[in-house]
Structures are given as C-alpha cells and as structure tokens.
Amino acid sequence: MKALRSTQEGRYVLAANGGNDDLLYSMDWGSVLSNRWALEQALPRIVRAADGDPATDANA
C-alpha cells in the first residue's frame, strides 16, 4: 500500500482497527443502520481525500 501514489500523496481513507474510529466496526457489522452510519462518516473523508490537495489530511 505504501508504494501507491494515492498513499504517498495522502489520498486515502483510514478505517483504523481499534481506537476511537468506529467506521471499521460499522462497516463490518453490515446492518442497514450501521452501513448508513458508515457512509455518513466516510463520505466527508472521501471528499477530503479526493480534493486534489496533497496537504489535506482526509483522516483528520
């Protein structure tokens, strides 16, 4: 993954395993409510990752 240009430019969305980020767990659960919540949480990160500015931290 580190060799990918998108990773080198910081254009990725991190779903951390553990910690305070429940995005990974909500995607793993797979219910209608958890998937909706995951999309609501991930969408702003995806938009930031795709803004074309390498200085933007999509996971902030």
Radius of gyration: 12 Å
The number of strands is 0
Average the pLDDT over all residues and give the rounded result.
Answer: 83
Low-confidence stretches: none
Number of separate helices: 3
In the residues, how many domains can be counted? 1
Q: Give helix and strand order, one letter per element, not per position.
A: HHH
Q: What fraction of the residues are assigned to beta strands by DSSP?
A: under 5%
| Helix fraction by DSSP (H/I, runs of at least 4) | 40-55%
Largest sheet: none
Q: What structural category do the secondary elements indicate?
A: mainly alpha
Question: What is the CA-CA span between the terminal residues?
Answer: 20 Å
Descriptive overview:
This protein is mainly α and 60 residues long. It has one domain. The protein is built from three helices and no strands. Helix 2 packs across helix 3. The model has no long low-confidence stretch (mean pLDDT 83).
